[in-house]
């Protein structure tokens, strides 16, 4: 693989599948890194992540506003409060993105999109990426890093649609992602 196609095109409408992804080892990693670096060159300097809004985690089995859920979850993860409900919501948003490759504004009590066409709020993807990279750094679960990398693929593909503040946050996500993958690679040497 001489190029990294997963962060190209409109990945919100034309979602990546990742099924049976051909891996060419070091070549794929080089292409992935080059793709991330090319996007980073077009983005503002990385900024610190904005603090989480207040709020409590919703109960399971009730309708939710995604932004409120993510803010409450970010608050818990930032404070390294990994109570069972926090871990369950982390797994739930990870699974939701792995399956749908989208985040919708609202979900019903069965965690299904209320308005299936409302999935273009890039702030939701950025906050979810921030949550998952923090959780990966604290817990080391590769599923969180994997989902964060796919979220960043999506964001890189649509990065021209980000405002300056979102672009700076994506820049920070890319920096964190590159550092996490480099640390993993070093661990295998």
Short description:
The chain has 189 residues and is mainly alpha-helical.
Describe the structure.
The chain has a two-stranded antiparallel sheet. The model has no long low-confidence stretch (mean pLDDT 88). By secondary structure, the chain is mostly helical. The radius of gyration is 16 Å and the shape is globular. It is built from six helices and two strands. The chain has one domain (26-188). Helix 3 crosses helix 5 (142-157).
Main traits of this protein?
single chain, 189 residues, mainly alpha
Shape: globular
Oligomer: single chain
Q: Describe the strand arrangement of the main beta sheet, using strand numbers.
A: 1-2
Tally of structural domains:
1
Helical fraction equals 55-70%
* Overall radius of gyration: 16 Å
Mean pLDDT: 88
% residues in beta strands: under 5%
The ordered string of helix (H) and strand (E) elements is: HEHHEHHH
Given helix and strand content, the structural type is mainly alpha
- Report, as a whole number of angstroms, the end-to-end distance: 23 Å
What is the tally of beta strands?
2
Low-confidence stretches: none
Major sheet description: 2 strands, antiparallel
Please work out how many helical segments DSSP would assign.
Answer: 6
